Amino acid sequence: MSSRRFRATAPPPSPHDLNPRREPILDFPDREFGELSPRDYELVGFMCGLEVHQQLETRRKLFCRCASGRRVTRIDNVVLRHMRPTLSEMGQYDGCALMEFKTRKEIVYLLERGTVCTYEMDDTPPFEIDAEAVKIALEVSTLFGLNLVNELHVMRKQYLDGSIPTGFQRTAMIGTDGVIPFRESELGGDRMLRIRQLTLEEDSCREVSDVGHRITFRTDRLGTPLIETVTEPDLLTPQDVAAGGRLLADVARACAKVRRGAGAARQDVNVSVAGGRRVELKGVPSQRLLPRLVHNEAFRQLNLLRIAAELSRRGLEESLYSVGDVEWAWASPRVVDATSLLKKTEYPPLKDALERGHRVLAIRLTGIEDLLSHRTQPEITFSHELSERVRVIACLEARPFMISSSVAGYGLGPSDWRHLRSALSADTEDGIVVVWGPDEDVDTAAREILSRVREAFRGVPSETRQAFADGTTGFERILPGAERMYPDTDTPPVPIIDGWVQEIEAALPERPWQTDSRFVALGLDPALAARATRAEWRPYFEAASQGASPTLARAIAAALDRTWHRAKRKRRGPPPSTERMALVVSAFARGELPLFALESAVEGVLSHADGDGDKLLAALRVGDATSALEQRIAGLASERKELRSRDPAAGVRWAMGRALEFLRGRVDPRLVRERVENIFAIPGAQA
User: 400: cis peptide before it, omega within 30°?
Assistant: First the structure.
C-alpha cells in the first residue's frame, strides 16, 4: 500500500514529556559549551535523565537457545521484510511507528546459521526466558536498591525501524524506585540519584548500511540479553550527566557479569529546558561526548522556543503550512512543480537531478524567510531541521537534495528565485524551499517540510535524535509513546523465586561508592580511588595491595594507572595473572627493592604473559647503578649539540627522557634529575 494513502494519525504527545517549568527564559544569551556555571543551567531549567543499555554475559540469548555474544561476518541466508504499524490496545497508532511506515523501507537481514534461529525471524514462539539472564538482572537491580517485582510479565515494545525482525522487542520489568549516592555530582557530594526502573530486554540487530529505501542488518547481536536502567531527571548540569553515566556503568559492572567492549553498553539521554519537552539523544557511544551534546541540545531547544514565540508575535497560523487533502503535494497552492521552471538552472546538483528525470518541487513558507537562517546549533540553522526530517523520512539519496532561499550567494541564481517566487505568489518575507527526487519521495518531503514548520508553533517537538561526534544532533525519529507497548501473549508470567533473591543478597558484591571508600582508607586520594574503582587494572591492585602500607598502596595504584595502557599495547598474548603481580610487588613490601623501581616492575609484569617472576626481580636487583648513571650523563653531555632549543627547561626534559630510557627502575629519578640539571639547566656547567 502506498504511504500517501495511509493517513492514520497518532495521538498528541504525553504531557509527562513536558518540562515542569513552562515559562522559557528566552532572553538568556546563547553560550558555548564550557562557558556556563551550574547556576546558569538552573536558570534555563536544564533537566536530564539517562537510559543505559548494558549487555549481560550469558551463554544463551534471552528467548532462544542460540549462543550469545558472538560477532560474525559470514552470511548463510538473506531475508527481506516490510513493516506495518498496528493499533495499540486503546485503538491508537504510535506516532513513531507511523513515521517509520512513511519511509517505505525495504529491510534486509543477513543471517548466519550459528547465531540466529526461527524464533528471531518470528517463525516460532519464544522459548522460556533465560534464567541466567534473569538472575543477573536481579543482582544488578539489587545493587541499585530497586524494589524487585514478584513476577515477570513480558511486554512487547513496537519497533518498525527494522532493527528487530518481529517488529517488536520483548521486555520485562525487573525492579523500580531505587536511590543511589551521587558523590561525583558537580552540585555537591551529598546528592542522590533516583533510579526509576530496570528492565530486561532482548537486544536489536546490528546495522550494516542505510541507503535510500533499503536498510541492512546483521542478526548476530539480535536477542542478546541486556538491561535498561532508567534514571529520573536528576542530572542538572552537563558534567553531572557524564558523571551519572559513569556511576550507572560502575554499578552494573560491579557484578562482573556484564559484557565489555564496543557496542556492549549504549546510553540514551533525555534532555529538556524550561518551556520545552523531553528530547531523546539516542545511542551516545561515549560518556566523553555527553556534556557537549546535552549543552547543545539545551540551546537548540531554547532557540526553537524563540522561533515559536516569534511566529506567535507575527500573528501567523499553522493552517498557512498545510497542503490540505490532495493526492499529490504539488496540487496544493503552497507547493509547485518547478521541474520545467528550473530546467535551465546552472546549479549542478539540480541539473543532475533533472537529467535523471527527477521531479523538483518548490514549497512556500509564508512569512518566515529570515527564520530559516535562525541558528539552532553550532553552525546549524532552522533550515537544517527541515532537511534532517526530509533526509530520514523521505529517504532522498542525492547529496544535497534540498536548498532554501535563506542561503545567500550559493545554489540557485537570482533569476531562478524570481521565477519560483512568481509561481508561488510569494512575498519577499516568504521562505522558499526547493527539493528534488523521485515523485513519491518529493511528495513525502514536501509534506514533512510543512509538517515540521507547523510543529515549530509548539516549540520543541517530541523527537529521538542521533548524536554526532562534533556535539551536534540530527533527527532520527518521532519520540515513541506508550501506545507502542502491549502485553506479550506468547510468554506466561514467570515467578521470581525467593531462593534466587536470597542467594543474590548473600553474595552481593561491593557497590562502587563502597569500593571508593575502602580504597581511600587504604591511602589513595579520592580521584585516584575513583579511577581505581572503575579501571581494568583494579584486580591487579586488589591482589598487590593486600596488607600494603598506605605509601605502598598509593604507589601501586599510581604505577598501574600510568602504565596500564602502555603495557597493554606492548603485550603479546593473554594478560598476566594477578598472583604474579602480587608476587613481584611483595618484594617491595619486604624492602628488598627501592620504591622508585616499582613502576618499572609493574610495567614489566603487565607487558608480558605469565612467566618467571624471579627473572623480573633479578633484572631489577642490579646493584649500585651509580657508575652507569655517570656514564650516561657523560654521553648526554657530548650529545647536547643535537638539542636545538636554548631553553634550559627543554634541555632538562630531553636529557631526563634519554637517561631514564636506560636507567628507569635502576636509579632514583630524583638523583637523575639532580645530575641532569647540573649540566643542562646551569649555563657553563661541566660533567
Answer: yes
- DSSP label of 642: G
- Averaged pLDDT for residues 601-607: 84
Q: Which three cell numbers stand for residue 548?
A: 600494603
pLDDT, tens digit (0-9, with 9 covering 90-100), for 426-485: 999 999 999 999 999 999 999 999 999 999 999 999 899 999 999 999 999 988 777 778
Closest to 343 measured CA to CA, from 334, 351, 335: 351
Nearest-angstrom CA–CA distance, 153 and 176: 14
For residues 155 and 105, the answer to whether their CB atoms sit within 8 Å is: no
Q: Are 220 and 118 in contact (CB under 8 A)?
A: no
494-522 pLDDT, tens digit each? 999 999 999 999 999 999 999 999 999 99
Is-contact 676 650, C-beta < 8 A? no
How far, in Å, CA of 476 to CA of 560, rounded? Answer: 42
The rounded distance, in Å, linking the Cα atoms of 514 and 247 is 12
Q: Which of 357, 55, 80 is nearest to 201 (CA)?
A: 55
Are 452 and 376 a contacting pair, CB within 8 Å? no
Q: Is 342 helix (H, G, I), strand (E, B) or coil?
A: coil
- The answer to whether 199 touches 129, Cβ cutoff 8 Å, is no
End-to-end CA distance of the chain: 88
Least confident of 133-142, 408-417, 652-661: 652-661
Its pTM stands at: 0.86
Instruction: Compute the distance between CA of residue 459 and CA of residue 330 in angstroms, rounded to an integer.
Output: 27
- The CA distance from 630 to 286, in Å, is 48
Model confidence over 562-573: pLDDT tens digits?
Answer: 999 988 888 887
How many angstroms separate the CA atoms of 440 and 102, rounded?
10
